[in-house]
Write a structure and sequence with these properties.
The chain is α+β, with helices and mostly antiparallel strands. It is 46% helix and 22% strand. Strand 17 and strand 18 form a beta hairpin.
C-alpha cells in the first residue's frame, strides 16, 4: 500500500514537472528567438550607422567644398576691383583651397570664360586632369539658382572628380551696362574625392578590422571611394549587393536597407550588406560584412538560451510547483511593468509582498520608475523654461536662470556695463507710408538680426522700445572686453544692414537706416517690476547717457562716449566730434564717432 502511494506520487510529480516544462521550454525558445532577432537587428543597425558615418563625412566634404567654391565666387563678384586683380586673387584663393583642384568661370549665359588650376601634379597625365564643360546649360543654371549649388556626376578617367556649380552673386560696376538681377557669373569647381577613400578605409579598419568593408558608390552604381584602389571606377550594377537598386536616380530618396547575399567570388561567402543613400549627391554608402561575423552574437544567444534552458529544466525538477507559481506572478508583473516603462509609462508600480529578493527587486523597480518620472517632469519643465526664456534673454541668462544661478526674484546689483541703443531713423514716416503689417514685418526682421548679432557678441537684449533696441554687456556675465564686444556688435549690425537694404530698397523704394549710441558706466542690473510681472533690465546713468547719445547720432553713425572709447583702446578708428551737454548729466561729455 505504501509502495502504491509512492508510485502515484511519483507519477503525479513527473506529470506536473512535464506540464511545467512545456511552457518553460516554449518561453525559453521565444526569449532566445526574440534575443536572436534583436541581435540580428542590432547588427543591421550597426551597419546602417557605419554607413551613415561615412555619409556624414561625405556631407562634410561637400560642405567644405561649397564653402571654398563660394569664397572663390565672392572674390569674382568684387567688381570694384580690376579684372586682372580679381583673377590674381582667385588664383591665390585656389592655391590655398584644401579640396578644390581647378575652377572654370562662366558668364551669366553659361559660356565658359576661363579655367584655372591649382597647379600641375606629378601624376597629372591628360586623363587625370579634369576637363570642364564648354557651357552650363539653362536647365543646370536654373537648378543652381534654385538650390544654391549643383553637384555633377563624378567624372574623369584616371582620377575621380566631383564637379560643383555655384553662382557668384554681385553687381556689375557702374557704367558697364549690366543689370543688378541674377548672379554675376557661375563657377564650376573640381573636387578630388580621393580623401573619401582614406575615410572609408579607416571606417572599415575601426568597425570591422577589414578596410575593404566600406565603399561609396554613385548613382550609376560605380565605386568612387574604396580602400582598394583597384575597386575605384568599377561598376556594381547587377551585383548581388545592389540587386534591389532600380531606377534612373535610385539614391535621391532617403530609403536605406540591408540585404543578405553571397559574394561573387569563388568562395561564395555569405554577406550582409547595408546601403544608405546620400540624396544631396545621389551617392550611397555600401557596408559589407561576413554573416558569420555579423551574426556571431545570434549563435551566442542560442547557445546561452540552450544552456539556461537546460539548467532551468534541471532545476525545475527540484523546485516545488507552488513556489514556482508564487514566484512567476511577480516576475510576469515586472515584465509587463518593464514594457510599460519602455513605452513611457513611469506611473506603473509593482505590488509584491514578502521580504524576499522578488519583493526587493519590485521595490527597487518602483523607486526607479518614480525617479524616472520625476526626472522626465524636470526635463520637460526645464525644456519649456529654456524655450520660453530664449525668446527674451540671451543663452547666458537662460542657462543661469534654468541652472539656478540667477534667481527669478525682484532686486538688482550695481554693475559696470556697456549699453547700446540702436534706433531706426525715420521709421514713423515709413509706417505712415506703408500698411501697419508691412512696417511690423520689416521691424521684426530687423530686430531678429539685431538680436542674433547681440547674442553672438555676448550681449543681452534688454528691451525693444518701439523702433529702438536696447542691449547691454556686462550682465549677467561680466567680461573684460564688454565694451569692445558692444562696438563690434554695432559694426556688425551696420554691415548686415547694407545687405538687408539691397532687398528693402527694391521692396520699399528706400533704405532702412540706424543711429547707434554706446556708453559704458555704472548701472543697477536685475529683475525690476512686480511679483506678477518682472523684467531683467538695467537702470541708471549709463542707460540714460546711451539713450541721449543715440538721439545725437545721424543715420548710419555709431557714437560713443570717452568712457567707452578708453575701454576699447585702439581696436577701432574713431575721432572726437566735440563736447556736449547731455540731459541728466552734471558734466559735459566728449563724444566720439566711429569711422567707416
Amino acid at each position: 500500500m505504501v509502495r502504491r502511494r509512492l508510485r502515484v506520487w511519483h507519477k503525479l510529480g513527473l506529470a506536473l514537472v512535464a506540464v511545467g516544462l512545456v511552457p518553460l521550454v516554449l518561453a525559453a525558445w521565444l526569449i532566445a528567438d526574440d534575443g536572436a532577432s534583436r541581435v540580428a537587428a542590432s547588427a543591421r543597425a550597426y551597419h546602417l550607422a557605419t554607413a551613415e558615418v561615412a555619409l556624414q563625412e561625405a556631407r562634410g566634404l561637400l560642405a567644405r567644398a561649397l564653402a571654398e567654391a563660394r569664397a572663390l565666387g565672392q572674390v569674382l563678384a568684387r567688381t570694384e576691383l580690376e579684372a586682372t586683380r580679381r583673377e590674381a586673387l582667385m588664383r591665390a584663393q585656389l592655391l590655398a583651397a584644401e579640396l578644390i583642384d581647378a575652377v572654370a568661370v562662366y558668364d551669366r549665359q553659361g559660356r565658359r570664360l576661363v579655367v584655372m588650376r591649382a597647379g600641375e601634379r606629378d601624376d597629372a597625365a591628360e586623363g587625370a586632369r579634369w576637363t570642364p564643360p564648354e557651357a552650363v546649360g539653362e536647365r543646370e543654371r536654373a537648378e543652381v539658382l534654385a538650390r544654391g549649388y549643383r553637384a555633377h556626376e563624378v567624372a574623369g578617367e584616371a582620377r575621380l572628380w566631383l564637379a560643383l556649380t555655384v553662382p557668384a552673386w554681385g553687381v556689375p560696376a557702374e557704367g558697364t551696362g549690366g543689370d543688378d538681377e541674377g548672379p554675376y557669373a557661375f563657377l564650376v569647381v573640381a573636387v578630388d574625392v580621393a580623401p573619401l577613400s582614406t575615410l572609408v578605409r579607416g571606417l572599415g579598419e575601426r568597425h570591422f578590422d577589414d578596410p575593404r568593408r566600406v565603399r561609396l558608390i554613385d548613382q550609376s552604381q560605380r565605386v568612387i571611394a574604396a580602400a582598394d584602389a583597384s575597386e575605384l571606377g568599377r561598376s556594381l550594377r547587377g551585383s548581388p549587393a545592389t540587386a534591389g537598386v532600380s531606377g534612373e536616380d535610385p539614391f535621391r530618396r532617403e530609403i536605406a536597407y540591408t540585404v543578405d547575399y553571397r559574394s561573387e567570388a569563388d568562395s561564395g561567402e555569405a554577406l550582409i550588406g547595408a546601403i544608405v543613400p546620400l540624396p544631396e549627391l545621389g551617392w550611397a554608402a555600401l557596408v559589407e560584412e561576413a554573416q558569420v561575423e555579423a551574426y556571431a552574437g545570434v549563435a551566442a544567444v542560442w547557445r546561452t538560451a540552450a544552456a539556461v534552458g537546460i539548467a532551468v529544466a534541471l532545476g525545475a525538477l527540484l523546485i516545488a510547483l507552488v513556489l514556482g507559481r508564487r514566484m512567476a506572478r511577480p516576475v510576469e508583473a515586472m515584465a509587463e511593468a518593464t514594457r510599460r516603462v519602455a513605452a513611457g509609462d513611469f506611473a506603473v508600480r509593482i505590488e509584491a509582498g514578502g521580504r524576499d529578493e522578488i519583493a526587493e527587486t519590485a521595490g527597487a523597480f518602483n523607486t526607479m520608475t518614480a525617479e524616472l518620472g520625476r526626472y522626465r517632469e524636470r526635463l520637460v519643465e526645464e525644456t519649456r523654461a529654456r524655450e520660453s526664456l530664449s525668446r527674451f534673454l540671451s543663452p547666458d541668462v537662460v542657462e543661469r536662470i534654468v541652472g539656478g544661478k540667477e534667481a527669478l526674484a525682484l532686486g538688482g546689483e550695481r554693475r559696470e556695463v556697456t549699453v547700446m541703443f540702436a534706433d531706426v531713423v525715420g521709421f514713423t514716416a515709413l509706417a505712415d507710408e506703408r500698411e501697419p503689417e508691412v512696417a511690423v514685418a520689416i521691424l521684426n526682421e530687423l530686430f531678429t538680426i539685431v538680436t542674433e548679432i547681440v547674442f553672438q557678441h555676448g550681449g543681452v537684449i534688454d528691451k525693444f522700445i518701439g523702433d529702438c533696441a536696447m542691449a547691454i554687456w556686462g550682465a549677467p556675465e561680466e567680461r573684460p572686453d564688454d565694451a569692445r564686444r558692444a562696438v563690434r556688435a554695432a559694426e556688425a549690425i551696420l554691415r548686415w544692414l547694407e545687405v538687408g537694404n539691397a532687398k528693402w530698397k527694391k521692396q520699399l523704394g528706400r533704405e532702412i537706416e540706424l543711429a547707434i549710441g554706446i556708453h559704458s558706466g555704472q548701472a543697477v542690473v536685475g529683475n525690476i517690476g512686480s511679483d506678477k510681472r518682472m523684467e531683467y533690465t538695467a537702470i541708471g546713468e549709463a542707460v540714460n547717457v546711451a539713450a541721449r547719445l543715440e538721439r545725437l547720432a545721424r543715420p548710419g553713425q555709431i557714437l560713443m562716449t570717452r568712457q567707452t572709447r578708453e575701454r576699447v583702446g585702439d581696436e577701432f578708428a574713431s575721432r572726437s566730434i566735440g563736447t556736449y551737454d547731455i540731459v541728466g548729466r552734471a558734466r559735459p561729455s566728449e563724444i566720439f564717432v566711429l569711422d567707416d
